[in-house]
Amino acid sequence: MPHQEGAPAGTGVAVPILALTLGHVFSNAVRTLPAVAADVLATDLGLSAEGLAAVTAVFPASFALAMVPTGVALDRWGVRRTALVLLAIGATGAVLAALAGGVAGMLLAQAVLGVGCSGMLMCPVTFAARALPLPRFALWSGIIQAVGNTGMLLSASPLALLVEWRGWQAGFWASAGLAVLAWSAVALAVQERPLPRETARRTVWQDAREVVILARSPALRPLMVFAFASFAAVLGVRGLWGGPWLMEVKGLGRVEAGNLLLLCTVALTFGPALAGVVDRLLGRRAALMAGSHALVALFILLMAAGGPGGPLAAAFGVPVLPPAFDAALLALVGLVISFQVLIFPAARALVPAEQTGRALSAVNMSFFGGAAAMQAVSGVSAAFGGIAAALCSFAAALLLCSAGFLFLLRRAPR
């Protein structure tokens, strides 16, 4: 029998969580696809690199805007129905992207994809938060991130090969097929619990207002600041600028670049589980979160410094450091940035169970609002200083938001 959402944890909890996590796999694949198709996408759409950054920034912007209604839907109508509706929207967005013949069509597709993907992480995380005790939820939040990040494995070498063979449109068609697969798995494996009476008595407007109130609350404010730069760095380095950096600056072919990005993605797959283990052993969650951001900022700056004419390359007496240097740094970025997963148990511990969906959605709103803002900033940076400047803009954001997180944490109510 399918597991009842919100029921006590048991052996039946893994299947519905993993079925819901397939949606996160789809979301990661479709939003990082531009990393291995940026050149052909820009050419076919008649865009510059910064223009493509602006177009793809519509995805995280619409994602962030959809987080309020998504949080309301999760707590009001349940995970199953929310996931099925969003996966249908996501599949539609992938089809629209595959059929896009110009900038307007791709803008529409990215907006629809952003809405459809807005709950792909929150659905399994909310389900797990309701079904599991807090210690097990911390472990499962890492598992959900690890499994979901395999979507980025698909957008590395496999989709790079597909794009090379059949064009960028084929990548979006493949993503649409993955969304359909995820929809089928959720329909079969996840069963919804009855609507609580207290939820039925509230209006939708009251629920939406509560998401905004939670986002602005002193308790959640440090996490909101932390989240603003966190996923922006993943999407910027792995999802947008990593491919152009390796192909245009380091001179690699598309498949070679995809192979190096694969290292980052493998690290992103194992990193969340490592973060959960380290968190349980050390118990210094805030230090781990801020420290991981600072380290990732350092890795990004080192990557830029190893580019043509960079200070690190000059220190070694070479025009540019070899791609193997970037491969090592990309793997470290993927491993260390994964400590961002600790934000979910941190947020869950601050609210009662009935507010889980809204609180987690508020945090995710900052994840993707920051990604949209930073993608636009990185495009401007690239226009003035090239791809290296675009990468450095993410390093600066990570350092600033980590400092803000620690500052606000000291002032937060205990």
Automatic annotation (TrEMBL):
Domain Major facilitator superfamily (MFS) profile intervals: 16-414
Superkingdom of source: Bacteria
Subcellular location: Membrane
Topology with respect to the bilayer: Multi-pass membrane protein
One Gene Ontology MF term: transmembrane transporter activity
Coiled-coil region: none
Key word Transmembrane present: yes
Cleaved signal peptide residues: none
A single Gene Ontology CC term: plasma membrane
Main localization category: membrane
Transmembrane annotation, as ranges: 51-72, 84-105, 111-132, 139-160, 172-190, 223-240, 260-282, 294-321, 327-347, 359-377, 383-409
Keyword tags: Membrane, Transmembrane, Transmembrane helix
Keyword Transmembrane helix: yes
A Pfam family: MFS_1
Protein's recorded name: Uncharacterized MFS-type transporter
Origin species: uncultured Acetobacteraceae bacterium
